[in-house]
Design goal:
With 506 residues, the chain is of the alpha/beta class. It is globular, with a radius of gyration of 22 Å.
Length: 506
């Protein structure tokens, strides 16, 4: 084990891990896919039904209300928050370039520290050639033998129905026809609960649950659907008068204008029900920790890789843009009881790359590699000082960058959602879709060097990002300030030096 005598960045106001204790704390990383950062009851959303997450914050957790992903797509975001690197640092900005065996990451560090890493769920993280390759990165890769089945598929929607084009599939009944629906998220969650309650080894464990929901398609079990009151759902963000042309083209191929407001509300109700299901599964893991008597000795982290439009701007799912709908995510941290934390809500800006930095600092571990994350340990203990001046995200391809293209979409069946989506997106990728955003509490600036569509929003007066001020001369000085933040961002995060130095005398 490599331990720091005085971990870098540790706040003096916080009592952290006591090395006299017999073992390091357990860790649970609960990682749903496409969970919006605003669908949380404790953050004031009356439409969200999230009792277990709300209870976690009351019982000792800290919820970061301004947490942001570094990429609006699954794989690059996960590669980023598992390393502490921004996507450009090692080129992890596409869906098909994942972490390589030689690249340091949270799991490699934890396993070096004698953690048993248990993994149940999807990948979108490591480059694997077969299932056995999982064991290069974890000690147990769980595959549920019989995924939980109880509900039937929803009634089929014709491809000619515009709701089909925006990925709506409906409500799954308990009484129906055909084969019941397989539920791997439920199966993996039950597997995690069984592992926790039966674990007897001396070394600590890290449970990693990267689940598939609430990623669309938009479908949900009837029980969770009926828990959502559609009248409590917040309104959609409307389509701006002058919007990025790729989004206009996507709305066209999705036939968004044919979707009624009632249909959009139904889609949002289904999505919120999917989030309630995730909350229910999370509660099962917490219950297992309490049953085992390990709740107080466990660091619990709940975070998503990115959000979802869910009808905002008349769009489903996600796209390569930098809206808060896609980049703001839940990020809740419940430290072990040995950390004298101040539970509640924090509003300072945080990034998902702060997750590994916080774990390393809290455990007193020197990770052995350079990263850009910032520890939240002081924040957990009540320090309300700003952690970051701004947050950053990036997405997209260089001009004619064939290595970026996701070849999986070329063989999609007719009327497939991703077939429709990439019919538009692939044309833009030839031009070059790469863009980067910088956001602070007041402004968001987006730069797209290939497409020449930049954006600037005054978030205090326009939180819905509806009025692009990039050409407004009154904001020319703000433009310069945000451009300067981007310049400093790339200068200070352009690469990483390995700790292992090469000899010069050979």
């Amino acid at each position: 084990m490599i331990r720091l005598k005085q971990p870098v960045g540790r706040s003096n106001i916080c009592t952290v891990w006591n090395k006299q204790m017999s073992k390091l704390p357990n860790i649970v990383i609960f990682n749903p896919d496409s969970y919006r950062g605003d669908v949380l009851g404790h953050l004031g959303n009356a439409g969200a039904v999230t009792p277990n997450l709300d209870r976690l914050v009351r019982e000792g957790g800290v919820s970061y209300a301004n947490a942001f992903a570094q990429n609006p797509a699954c794989t690059p975001s996960r590669c980023s928050f598992m390393t502490g690197w921004y996507p450009h640092v090692h080129g992890h900005r596409s869906m098909r370039y994942m972490l390589q065996d030689h690249e340091p990451n949270l799991f490699s560090v934890l396993r070096r520290e004698d953690y048993h890493v248990w993994w149940g769920g999807k990948n979108d993280l490591f480059a694997l050639k077969n299932k056995e390759d999982y064991l290069k990165h974890c000690d147990t890769k769980y595959h549920p033998e019989k995924p939980y089945k109880e509900y039937y598929p929803p009634p089929k929607i014709s491809p000619q129905d515009p709701r089909h084009s925006v990925f709506y599939r409906g409500v799954m009944p308990k009484q129906g026809k055909g084969e019941k629906v397989s539920d791997r998220d439920y199966g993996n969650t039950l597997g995690a609960a069984d592992f926790i309650t039966s674990y007897s080894a001396e070394n600590p464990f890290c449970v990693y649950l990267p689940l598939s929901w609430p990623h669309p398609s938009y479908r949900v079990e009837e029980d969770f659907y009926h828990m959502i009151d559609p009248d409590n759902l917040p309104p959609r963000r409307p389509v701006p008068e002058n919007d990025f042309s790729m989004l206009d083209d996507l709305r066209g191929i999705y036939r968004s204008e044919e979707i009624s407001e009632d249909d959009w509300k139904e889609i949002r109700r289904v999505y919120y029900g999917m989030c309630t299901k995730i909350d229910s599964l999370f509660g099962k893991v917490v219950a297992a920790l309490k049953k085992k008597g390990e709740y107080d000795n466990t660091l619990i982290i709940f975070l998503s890789d990115h959000g979802d439009f869910t009808g905002d701007y008349s769009l489903p799912e996600k796209a390569g843009t930098f809206h808060d709908s896609l980049l703001r995510v839940p990020f809740i941290v419940k430290p072990p009881a040995s950390v004298v934390a101040q539970p509640g809500i924090r509003t300072h800006l945080t990034e998902l790359i702060d997750m590994p930095a916080t774990i390393y600092d809290l455990l007193g571990i020197e990770p052995g590699y350079d990263h850009m994350g910032r520890s939240l340990v002081g924040s957990l203990c009540g320090d309300n000082s700003e952690i970051r001046q701004a947050v950053f995200a990036e997405h997209g391809s260089r001009e004619k960058e064939n290595a970026y293209k996701n070849s999986e979409v070329f063989n999609r069946p007719p009327h497939d959602f991703y077939g429709l989506k990439f019919e538009v997106v692939l044309k833009y990728q030839d031009v070059g879709t790469y863009g980067v955003s910088v956001r602070n509490h007041k402004y968001k600036y987006v730069r797209r060097p290939y497409f020449k569509w930049d954006e600037l929003y005054d978030l205090e007066s326009d939180p819905g990002e509806l009025h692009n001020l990039i050409k407004n001369p009154e904001y020319s000085e703000v433009n310069k300030q945000m451009e300067n933040l981007l310049l400093n961002y790339f200068m200070t995060t352009a690469d990483v030096l390995p700790y292992q130095q090469d000899p010069r005398n050979v």
